[in-house]
Amino acid sequence: MDTYKQVYEQLKQMKAVEEAITFLANDDTRTLEEQIVLAEIPAPPFKEEKRTDYIYEQLEHLGLVDVQKDEEGNVFGAYEGTEDGPTLFVSAHADSVFAEDVDTTVTHKEGTYYGAGITDDARGLAAMLSIVRAFTTNKLSIKGKIIFGATVGEEGVGDLRGVKAFFEHHTDVDGFISIDAVSPTEIIYLGTGSYRYEVTISGPGGHSFGAFGTPSALHVAAKAAAKLTEYDVTDVPKTTFNIGSIQGGTSPTAIAEFARMTIDLRSNGNLQLQAIDDYLHQALATAINEESTRAPLGKLTYTVTKIGDRPVGTQSTDAPIVRVAEMATKSLDLTPKLAGPASTDANHPIHLGIPALTLGAGGEAGAAHTLNEWYRPTNSYLGPQRVLYTILGLVGTHETESLLPRRLAK
């Protein structure tokens, strides 16, 4: 019999596992209540402390060992097994995309909950805490160790700083699950890479008529932007660009002394991401040269600052962690679906060669990253149940083997 199938047949027959699965269903209302509490705590990147403090208190209260907050701001604690086995990190991200002054009040209407950040990733955090309760309440006996926690800086300018810091200081971790989004069937096992830049251009400026012939910083930005939009992107692997903002100048009658651009480059392929990155830098240099030739009465300078670097993450559909998640999904009589690449905390460990997935926290959701974000708790317990089944398959129990391979600490 296939090892994966055998392990999951054993897990489904274990009374303690059955009780934990039932516990998660019964804990569903409490999980939703905690989700609302978390969503209403403002937590933009670099200002997640109030929300992580809440998670810290809950992890301590639930009896995890060695609960701590690291220098980056991540909080986590351990659930230790009784036998030697792999170490798995399971987390949701603590930050949301919304600024500190955004109203995060959650409202309810006809079975749907509305609020900035109600799903992303307040649902993931609440699901993670429910899973911890299932482990500690039912005293599940495992091999190895599970580290449960909340990472900071997953969104936008956070640039995965939390998960990057965690894996820099925990080289003995064998695998990772990020709880994000909601689907109880999709398995995100690939990571979309991205480079994000802020480009600043400076020049002498001058009167638009009297100093004509002086180069314009805004002209350079416009030329570079036009060149980038001409780039022939690939559909497979999907590659994209976006000029998020262009700012500069002071008046229609003044040659712009400065200009600033923000740019986002993304791809599901390493080579393609590097290619469009090279093109961007060439386009900027060419735009500077063209404007300097057109208007030679002054010198232009520019700086390119990388403000985001998310690596491409690739792993096989036959990877043990993927197969385990598929079996965990089937154990709930659901049909697993391998999702397309996404940009999540899992990007970084996958890039490092550490098996990693992003799994949904259950329910239905929409309008993410907008003030109209909504969440509907339809069969929402299925998310935590699927994650719990995945965890048990990976780390193993006193009756089942561990399906997550051990890796040597570096």
UniProtKB/TrEMBL annotation:
The keyword Hydrolase applies. Pfam families: M20_dimer, Peptidase_M20. SUPFAM superfamilies: Bacterial exopeptidase dimerisation domain, Zn-dependent exopeptidases. InterPro entries: Bact_exopeptidase_dim_dom, Peptidase_M20, Peptidase_M20_dimer, Peptidase_M20A. Keywords: Hydrolase, Metal-binding. Transmembrane segments: none annotated. PANTHER family: ACETYLORNITHINE DEACETYLASE, PEPTIDASE M20. This is Acetylornithine deacetylase/succinyl-diaminopimelate desuccinylase-like protein. The lineage of its organism: Bacteria, Bacillati, Bacillota, Bacilli, Bacillales.
